[in-house]
Automatic annotation (TrEMBL), chain A:
One Gene Ontology term of the molecular function aspect: metal ion binding
HAMAP family the record matches: LeuC_type1
Alphabetized UniProt keyword annotations: 4Fe-4S, Amino-acid biosynthesis, Branched-chain amino acid biosynthesis, Iron, Iron-sulfur, Leucine biosynthesis, Lyase, Metal-binding
Cofactor detail note: Binds 1 [4Fe-4S] cluster per subunit.
Name of protein: 3-isopropylmalate dehydratase large subunit
Top-level taxon: Bacteria
Reactions performed catalytically: (2R,3S)-3-isopropylmalate = (2S)-2-isopropylmalate
Binding site for [4Fe-4S] cluster: 357, 417, 420
Known role: Catalyzes the isomerization between 2-isopropylmalate and 3-isopropylmalate, via the formation of 2-isopropylmaleate.
Limits of the Aconitase/3-isopropylmalate dehydratase large subunit alpha/beta/alpha domain: 12-467
Gene that encodes the chain: leuC
Pfam families assigned: Aconitase (PF00330)
Pathway: Amino-acid biosynthesis; L-leucine biosynthesis; L-leucine from 3-methyl-2-oxobutanoate: step 2/4
Biological process, per Gene Ontology: L-leucine biosynthetic process
Automatic annotation (TrEMBL), chain B:
Keywords, alphabetical: Amino-acid biosynthesis, Branched-chain amino acid biosynthesis, Leucine biosynthesis, Lyase
Biological role: Catalyzes the isomerization between 2-isopropylmalate and 3-isopropylmalate, via the formation of 2-isopropylmaleate.
Name this protein carries in UniProt: 3-isopropylmalate dehydratase small subunit
GO molecular function, one term: 3-isopropylmalate dehydratase activity
Catalytic activity: (2R,3S)-3-isopropylmalate = (2S)-2-isopropylmalate
């Protein structure tokens, strides 16, 4: 990290504002800094052992007022008024409820109108704000970086550490600028930007870095689109990703339940306006993506870096010079049941999943609804739509989107992580192929033996119409238009 | 946390890159609420394949995993480290670790030793030519020994010190409780709070 006070990147400014205690020593021998955490988000999967640790040590939660919990990973998306059928899922949820009650943590349970995916809930309540440090025992915490917050996924030991101390011992990061200049073509979205970034730098390319997404294409994006991009920073191996706050950020926040108001609002905005990378600050690395020429992107393999333009074909092992990448390609093609050189658009899917902390917000649902409206779903495809939160579901219903999806033939579900990782009953069967708006195409991620192609919401929608991986531009004009 | 200075055990060559934490422990096993008992969950999908390395003798009793680059990518689940430890692994060697996995390892006393890929390749060959060959991971000198191979590894000084001493992180931090309180006293009043809940 640059030492001089005068020229700093955004990530360095946020970091510096949260140092409780600087690590002693220099260079490689330097100890980590003790960093204050402004917001700690908690869910049922990575917290039980942390609460147990507190209980055993007789420690309280230090700052209940900076902690909030919700249920998302295990929650069913059907019959939510009935007891959870899977006893281990039920036990985990009940454990969270008991822990929150015992320690005094605010919890939004299944059935509550603020329940939902933890990374949808925080921003929606206005709890995620520029310049904050945000952590959660979930790697997609990077989502909150869209607000210019330094937001990091942590493990359960660190969850316990934050509950007990409201701090984390962290080594400073390197900084990487991801410059995205130009204008996206119609049908190309934030998801395509981030899939292209990961394909370019690889799943380890961001390791040790905080990424800052910059440039005219990023500035033009809405908050929800910025969240989609920051969400997948972890898929490039980065510890966090962020976007400098601007008027778009302030407009999104103003009036939300936990946004500052009155004089506090003015003080906050004055500070937030200082949160940008100084003109003469230097990043440790820079990468550029041309928004003008970007096309819809889709993955063909079993890690998020194995992606190509939708208009191209499945690669062959010999396309890769690196021995490990060649072996990974071979293995991925076998797992995915794909032949090299098959045009991506010839690939037939069984299922379309619209949801996850990457793409389950109002804009995502609206964009997909726009495509499917007045069209009929391919009869061989099942499509499930899972709003990111109970509130998103209510808002979507108020706009009639639920009706658009069900008329199309899709299933309209309750909020949660759902088929992104299949901890609830929403899973792929062995060999089932899915176009998914989620974030990970790992082997077995969506169900044992399931095959995942990561796509944007509009590509998911178009794919549900045609039955093969498709972009909106492949669709004929709808009958009702 | 148990102290770690030096460990010698059977090396397991896992010739694969991008071993994500969903492979190390599938999500279905994350529903448990305990911190131990995850040995059956380690590489659960792969272990159903009889040809998987841990299903072969003498690797089944391995305690040093020698993996390809980008080990531990993806989900932050610390369960991945618990599963490796519960199975009996004391150290993982790779040329590149995902940050969160590396951090989680350090908290749990699993040594994540970063070696040059060329050294990983040499160790893979040695382990394949001499199945059951022993690997020594010496945290004091930051070296790995396997047959005639002596390779240095990287691990950050702070983690190394904590592992050598077997120190508890929370206890260390709470020594600075005054500094945390002083920081809190200076936080701007407009910073958001989760309580009281606002409609």
């Amino acid at each position: 990290m640059a030492a001089q006070e005068s020229a700093r990147t955004l990530a360095e400014k946020v970091w510096d504002a949260h140092v409780v205690r600087k690590g002693e020593g220099e260079g490689a021998a330097r100890q980590p800094d003790l960093i204050y955490i402004d917001l700690h988000l908690v869910h049922e999967v990575t917290s039980p052992q942390a609460f147990e640790g507190l209980r055993l040590a007789g420690r309280p939660v230090r700052r209940l007022d900076l902690t909030i919990a919700t249920e998302d990973h295990n929650t069913p998306t059907l019959d939510i008024d009935k007891p959870i059928a899977d006893p281990t899922s039920r036990k985990q949820i009940e454990t969270l409820r008991a822990n929150c009650a015992e320690f005094g943590v605010r919890l939004h349970s299944l059935g509550d109108k603020e329940q939902g995916i933890v990374h949808v809930v925080g921003p929606q309540l206005g709890l995620t704000q520029p310049g904050m440090t945000v952590v959660c025992g979930d790697s997609h915490t990077s989502t909150h970086g869209a607000f210019g917050a330094l937001a990091m996924g942590i493990g359960t030991s660190e969850v316990e550490h934050v509950l007990a101390t409201q701090t984390l011992s962290l080594k400073p990061f390197k900084t990487m600028a991801i410059n995205v200049e130009g204008t996206l073509k119609p049908g190309v979205s934030a998801k395509d930007i981030i899939l292209a970034v990961i394909a370019k730098i690889g799943t380890g390319g961001g390791q040790g870095y905080v990424l800052e997404y910059r440039g005219s294409a990023i500035r033009a994006l809405s908050m929800e689109a910025r969240m989609t991009i920051c969400n997948m920073s972890i898929e490039a191996g980065a510890r966090a990703g962020l976007v400098a706050p601007d008027q778009t950020t302030f407009d999104y926040l103003q009036g939300r339940p936990h946004a500052p108001a009155g004089a506090d609002w003015d003080a906050a905005v004055a500070y937030w306006k200082t949160l940008h990378t100084d003109d003469d600050a230097v990043f440790d690395a820079e990468v550029s993506i041309d928004a003008d020429t970007l096309e819809p992107f889709v993955t063909w393999g079993t890690n998020p870096g194995q992606g190509v333009s939708l208009s191209s074909a499945v690669p062959a092992p010999e396309d890769f010079a690196d021995e490990n990448e060649r072996a990974a390609c071979e293995r991925a093609l076998e797992y995915m049941g794909l032949q090299a050189r098959t045009p991506m658009k010839d690939i037939r899917v069984d299922t379309v999943f619209l949801g996850s902390c990457t793409n389950s917000r109002m804009e995502d649902l609206r964009a997909a609804a726009e495509i499917v409206k007045g069209r009929q779903k391919d009869p061989n495809v099942r499509m499930i739509v899972v709003p990111g939160s109970a509130r998103v579901r209510l808002e979507a219903e108020a706009e009639g989107l639920d009706k658009v999806f069900t008329d199309f033939g899709a299933e309209w579900r309750f909020a949660g992580c759902s088929m992104c990782l299949g901890m609830n009953p929403d899973q792929l069967a062995e060999g089932e192929r899915c176009a998914s708006t989620s974030n990970r195409n790992f082997e077995g991620r969506q169900g044992k033996g399931g095959r995942t192609h990561l796509v944007s919401p509009v590509v998911a929608a178009a794919t549900a119409v045609r039955g093969t991986l498709s972009s909106p531009s492949d669709l004929p004009v709808p009958v009702s238009a | 946390m148990e102290k770690f200075t030096r460990h010698t055990g059977t090396g397991v060559p896992l010739r694969q890159s991008n071993v994500d934490t969903d492979q190390i422990i599938p999500a279905v096993y994350l529903k448990r609420i305990t911190r131990t008992g995850f040995e059956d969950a380690l590489f659960a999908a792969w272990r159903k394949d009889p040809s998987f390395i841990l299903n072969q003798e003498p690797y089944a009793a391995g305690s040093v995993l020698v993996a390809g680059p980008d080990f531990g990518t993806g989900s932050s689940r610390e369960h991945a480290v618990w599963a490796l430890k519960d199975y009996g692994f004391k150290a993982v060697l790779s040329s590149r670790f995902a940050d969160i996995f590396r951090g989680n390892s350090g908290k749990q006393g699993l040594v994540a030793a970063q070696l040059d890929q060329s050294d990983i390749e040499l160790i893979w060959k040695e382990l394949e030519n001499h199945p059951g060959a022993q690997v020594t991971v010496d945290l004091q000198s930051r070296t790995v020994t396997c047959g005639a191979i002596h390779a240095p590894f990287e691990i950050d000084d702070y983690t190394r010190w904590r592992l050598l001493e077997g120190l508890d992180d929370i206890g260390l931090t709470l020594q600075h409780a005054d500094e945390i309180a002083a920081y809190e006293a200076a936080r701007p009043s407009w910073k958001p709070a989760t309580l009281p809940a606002r409609p």
